[in-house]
């Protein structure tokens, strides 16, 4: 059998698919990193931003020009330099024109360029107009002075600059964000004067540390007046490592009884903040506020008015809660991952950033001076030839008129260079005739002096440094401004506990046999007179406050909790607890209790076991509840009894057979959960027929009421002496006629 003939490929590279995929992904990721997402340290721009700025300069849209339609700019950018989507290009243009997004906007927009409430609500590019701002000159001013390298555009028909010859470290002025493949960048904006001051410090003291530079750069400076509350030590650590976070907080003022928010953190939407506050108000989690208004306008871009229910409300405490629960306080990630002068991305600290930018600036200024020196020397060379022609004008005219090769004749006669001869031949005769020797020599002297200055500056590092410093200070004087984001030392914001936000009002909480719950205002509520659903009736009531916790116990001994103010009112039938919680299948709610977290309760079962615990042990956020009381088969949860933590308290338990036992409360253990200890003895033979009907805790000075049908017997603390025994005892029988007990209560 012949072997199959393998196909032969010519002109193709055969590599494993895994290697090809790896190479292709790495090429793509490097493109995203270097040509899309991360900015270049020198000019602080991403490629699309650089191309927009350059295209606008080519269109003549400088600060003094009449603005043109943004669609014209976008068309030039994507048609000549950036073959990508027009919407993404226009969005990048809009971002550079928004004063609430850029600390120092590079583009001046006319029309709807969005708002701080919705930055992406800008009009279509066919409606808006734009031009460059004066500070854009810092990026473009030296572009035509031999300061940058040029590359062919995507189709090779035009050239575009590889970078802009920035006179200021624009990267730190406006900051930037970007997400590449496997890396990201987040550089916050800074104040121009502070950055220039740090650059001058580094020029004067090349050994300056990050700590030294932070004496000038005190922190980021966002285009908003919200406070930066990050501690100075954390800001220093951020600038030393190149990554960290900055926390900003809104500012507010009191206007009579109202609270007015006057500034929001960077990129925080006023409507979102209002929605967050209103949501808490609707959920009854912010009862301190009566109303909320947005009074923002052109004169007051941020003015959110909050109207408290009372002038006695602590504004600082309320705002602290809002800072912790809304976007009125926001944290910003800082990751100074930048493409350096060497073309490699790296996380850089403040000194590395400023040091590399100054090296970039030294190179830019050197190239600018060298370019100017070449221009001056060329002009001097032309002037020398022109002076020779002026001094020998008749001979020059004769050669031009009569010689077949006037250029060669001029070179041979006057020892001129090719460029000088061409320049003389290109000069019009009438201009040559008007030339004056003194004027030529005056220009020559000026250029000689300029050449000497240029050569002196290029040959002296100190003079070059002084020139850069003077230019930095001049730009700072022209474009610098005061810090907008104040640096303030503030404590951490604390969200108030839900119970602290609720007014403390008396309520009576009513639980029905079917597990429906409601809360009636006041303590003088007759729960038996309330309306219940058909087939339902009263199970238990407790008196408490609207800002207290309410705990519920089901038939399996699990506990659930909520706050009293969230319960429905007593006008209707309430709501089923199964809508709030998720008890086990077949379980029913059998008891409830209310109070503060430290409130002590006696938990007991109908089999006569129990323990004392704190109410906080019954609370939790789990809808499925938590196991708290262990029950024997057939046992029922009793209504918890309030223990006042007074010395000499007595635990009282009564059974369905009329046995009542009182003993010191100290004989019962204090547990977080469990079955507890035996409270009163019920003989095993009677467990099926006799059970504990109720328990109570009686303190000295209190009285115990025993309900039997429509009758009530009252026993003082002294009267209980007749029933005092040891824990787990049988107790004494109640008088005849009172042995069928319906319940106990303590007054």
Provide a descriptive summary of the structure in words.
Strands 10-11-13-12 form a four-stranded antiparallel beta sheet, with helices on one face. A four-stranded antiparallel beta sheet has the order 19-17-18-22, with no helix packed on it. It is α+β, with helices and mostly antiparallel strands. Helix 2 (47-58) crosses helix 3 (70-81). 32% of the residues lie in helices and 22% in strands. The model has no long low-confidence stretch (mean pLDDT 90). Among the domains are: 45-165, Alpha-Beta Complex (Topoisomerase II, domain 5), CATH 3.90.199.10; 251-327, Gyrase A, domain 2; 360-479, Topoisomerase, domain 3, CATH 1.10.268.10; 597-746, 6 Propeller (Neuraminidase).
**How many helix segments?**
19
Shape: rod-shaped
Query: What's the average pLDDT?
Result: 90
- Report the CATH C-level class of the domain at 597-746: Mainly Beta
| Gyration radius, rounded | 43 Å
Strand order of the largest sheet: 10-11-13-12
Q: Based on the coordinates given, report the CATH architecture of the domain at 597-746.
A: 6 Propeller
Query: What structural category characterises the helix and strand content?
Result: alpha+beta
Low-confidence stretches: none
| Gap from first CA to last CA | 108 Å
The total of beta strands comes to: 35
The major β-sheet equals: 4 strands, antiparallel
Specify the CATH homologous superfamily of the domain at 597-746: DNA gyrase/topoisomerase IV, subunit A, C-terminal
Named CATH topology of the domain at 597-746: Neuraminidase
Strand content: 15-25%
């Amino acid at each position: 059998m012949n072997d199959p003939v393998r196909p032969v490929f010519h002109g193709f590279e055969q590599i494993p698919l895994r290697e090809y995929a790896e190479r292709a992904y790495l090429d793509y990721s490097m493109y995203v990193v270097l040509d899309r997402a991360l900015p270049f340290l020198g000019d602080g721009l991403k490629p699309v931003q650089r191309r927009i700025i350059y295209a606008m300069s080519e269109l003549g849209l400088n600060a003094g020009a009449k603005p043109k339609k943004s669609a014209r700019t976008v068309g030039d950018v994507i048609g000549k330099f950036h073959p990508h989507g027009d919407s993404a290009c226009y969005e990048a243009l809009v971002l550079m024109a928004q004063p609430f997004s850029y600390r120092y906007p590079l583009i001046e927009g006319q029309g709807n360029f969005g708002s701080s409430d919705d930055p992406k609500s800008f009009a279509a590019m066919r409606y808006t107009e734009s031009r460059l701002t004066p500070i854009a000159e810092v990026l473009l001013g030296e572009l035509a002075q031999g300061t940058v390298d040029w590359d062919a555009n995507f189709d090779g028909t035009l050239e575009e600059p590889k970078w802009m010859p920035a006179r200021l470290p624009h990267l730190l002025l406006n900051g930037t964000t970007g997400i590449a493949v496997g890396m990201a960048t987040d550089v916050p904006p800074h104040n121009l004067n502070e950055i220039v001051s740090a650059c001058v410090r580094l020029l004067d003291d090349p050994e300056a540390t990050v700590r030294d530079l932070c004496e000038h750069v005190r922190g980021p400076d966002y285009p908003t007046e919200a406070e930066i509350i990050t501690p100075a030590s954390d800001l220093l650590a951020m600038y030393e490592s190149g990554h960290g976070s900055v926390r900003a907080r809104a500012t507010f003022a009191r206007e009579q009884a109202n609270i007015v928010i006057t500034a929001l953190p960077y990129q925080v939407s006023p409507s979102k903040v209002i929605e967050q506050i209103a949501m808490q108000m609707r959920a009854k989690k912010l009862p301190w506020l009566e109303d909320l208004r947005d009074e923002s306008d052109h004169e007051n871009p941020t003015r959110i008015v909050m109207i408290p229910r009372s002038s006695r409300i602590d504004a600082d405490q309320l705002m602290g809660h809002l800072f912790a629960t809304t976007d009125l306080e926001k944290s910003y990630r800082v990751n100074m991952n930048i493409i350096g002068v060497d073309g490699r991305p790296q996380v850089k600290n403040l000194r590395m950033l400023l040091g590399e930018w100054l090296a970039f600036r030294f190179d830019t200024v050197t190239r600018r001076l060298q370019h100017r020196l070449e221009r001056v020397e060329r002009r001097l060379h032309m002037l020398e030839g022109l002076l020779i022609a002026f001094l020998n004008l008749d001979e020059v005219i004769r050669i031009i008129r009569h010689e077949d090769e006037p250029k060669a004749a001029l070179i041979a006669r006057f020892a001129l260079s090719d460029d000088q001869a061409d320049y003389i031949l290109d000069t019009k005769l009438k201009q040559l005739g008007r030339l004056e020797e003194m004027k030529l020599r005056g220009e020559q002297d000026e250029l000689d002096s300029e050449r000497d200055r240029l050569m002196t500056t290029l040959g002296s590092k100190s003079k070059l440094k002084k020139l850069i410093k003077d230019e930095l200070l001049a730009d700072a004087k022209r474009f610098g401004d005061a810090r907008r984001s104040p640096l303030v030392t503030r404590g951490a914001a604390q969200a108030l506990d839900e119970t602290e936000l609720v007014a403390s009002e008396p309520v009576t909480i009513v639980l029905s046999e079917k597990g429906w719950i409601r809360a009636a205002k006041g303590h003088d509520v007759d729960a038996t007179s309330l309306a219940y659903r058909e087939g339902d009736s009263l199970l238990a009531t407790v008196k408490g406050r609207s800002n207290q916790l309410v705990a519920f116990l089901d038939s399996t001994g699990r506990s659930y909790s909520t706050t009293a103010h969230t319960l429905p009112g007593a006008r209707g039938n309430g709501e089923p607890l199964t809508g709030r919680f998720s008890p086990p299948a077949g379980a029913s709610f059998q008891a409830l209790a209310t109070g503060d977290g430290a409130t002590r309760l006696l938990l007991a079962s109908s089999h006569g076991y129990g323990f004392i615990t704190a109410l906080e042990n019954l609370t939790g956020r789990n809808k499925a509840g938590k196991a708290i009381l262990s029950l024997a088969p057939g046992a029922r949860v009793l209504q918890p009894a309030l223990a006042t933590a007074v010395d000499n308290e007595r635990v009282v338990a009564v059974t369905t057979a009329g046995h009542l036992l009182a003993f010191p409360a100290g004989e019962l253990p204090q547990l977080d959960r469990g079955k507890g200890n035996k409270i009163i003895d019920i003989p095993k033979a009677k467990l099926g027929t006799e059970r504990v009907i109720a328990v109570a805790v009686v303190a000295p000075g209190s009285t115990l009421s025993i309900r039997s049908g429509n009758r009530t017997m009252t026993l003082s603390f002294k009267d209980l002496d007749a029933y005092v025994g040891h824990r787990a005892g049988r107790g004494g029988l109640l008088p005849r006629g009172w042995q069928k007990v319906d319940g106990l209560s303590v007054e």
